[in-house]
Design goal:
The protein has helices spanning 32-59, 66-92, 97-105, 119-128, 147-158, 163-177, 181-197, 204-215, 225-238; strands at residues 14-16, 27-29, 251-253, 260-262. It is mainly alpha-helical and 284 residues long.
């Protein structure tokens, strides 16, 4: 169960390797992209071996010991060296896909004139520039393991988990990817699915907002009529039940099955509805 990754960019190229070590023994012909990629993988592999040895040694040391601190500094230098390697490729081969990929791997760096002690300012800068390293008009990034995790991180870890906030950010991002059909399709579908499956209370509102903006308006062209109808039906059922909305009236008998109660007629600051069923395992 071994595998390796390569770049499909040039119209014709060859890769020869063997099962002893796919990456180290790869011979590339006719592909600059794969020359850059496999050289990078070899560099990373060599560095990871050194990093693992250092971390194994560090685990046995006291955090205050001189050697522990020296290893910490060495690890920082390794990380710096990896960034410098990618920067060198970006500088020497600016028009390659590897440069696009390496750009996407970079984290947002705070400007020197920003007070790093001001956590609020640092947060807002990072949030506003989170996707700057990405070429959001290049659908090739969708075929890498970089874009989707970044998308999930942004909407689940960076943006406050409030439906209005995530929906506003979703619209901003989607506007940036509208020029690329595949990127638009992926982002709309992924975010709609995330919001629908979210375990955060009230996130249904974000799902309904996505359906209203992109599915009901005919922009979800990748769906057939049947699937689209199911998505819209799901949204329409949730719309009257969103947090902050006035729910449909409920008229039901009490436990005597003789006296009927009208939810809208309850004169109270708060009304708690407790739903249960005698045959429900969770209720039991």
């Amino acid at each position: 169960m071994q595998w390796f990754e390569f770049v499909v960019a040039e119209p014709e190229f060859t890769i020869e390797t063997d099962t002893i070590n796919f990456v180290q023994n790869a011979q590339i012909k006719g592909s600059l992209e794969n020359d850059l990629w496999f050289n990078y993988l070899r560099f990373v592999s060599s560095m990871q071996g050194e990093v693992q040895k250092l971390r194994a040694e560090q685990e046995a040391l006291e955090p205050e010991s001189p050697r522990y601190k020296a290893i910490t500094k060495e690890l920082e230098e390794k990380t710096k060296g990896l960034k410098e390697y990618r920067a060198k490729v970006r500088s020497e081969y600016p028009n390659t896909f590897m440069t696009t990929l390496f750009n996407a791997m970079e984290d947002v760096e705070l400007p020197e004139n920003l007070d790093t002690a001001d956590r609020k300012a640092a947060y807002w800068y990072m949030r506003n520039h989170f996707f700057d390293p990405f070429d959001l008009q290049d659908m090739r990034l969708l075929r890498t393991p970089i874009f989707e995790p970044k998308l999930v991180t942004y909407f689940e870890k960076v943006v406050p988990q409030q439906p209005d906030s995530v929906l506003a950010e979703a619209h901003k991002l989607i506007k940036k990817v509208e020029g690329d059909e595949e990127m638009f399709k992926f982002v709309v579908h992924k975010l709609t699915s995330m919001f629908e499956r979210s375990q955060v209370m009230c996130m249904d509102k974000a799902f309904v907002g996505m359906v209203e903006a992109y599915y009901k308006t005919g922009k979800a062209t990748w769906l057939n009529d049947s699937t689209l109808a199911k998505v819209v039906e799901r949204s329409d059922k949730l719309a009257p039940l969103l947090c902050g909305e006035k729910i449909p009236n409920i008229i039901l008998p009490d436990t005597s099955m003789k006296v009927w109660h009208n939810l809208y007629a309850q004169n109270a600051d708060y009304t708690v509805l407790y739903f249960w069923d005698a045959t429900c395992g969770h209720c039991k």
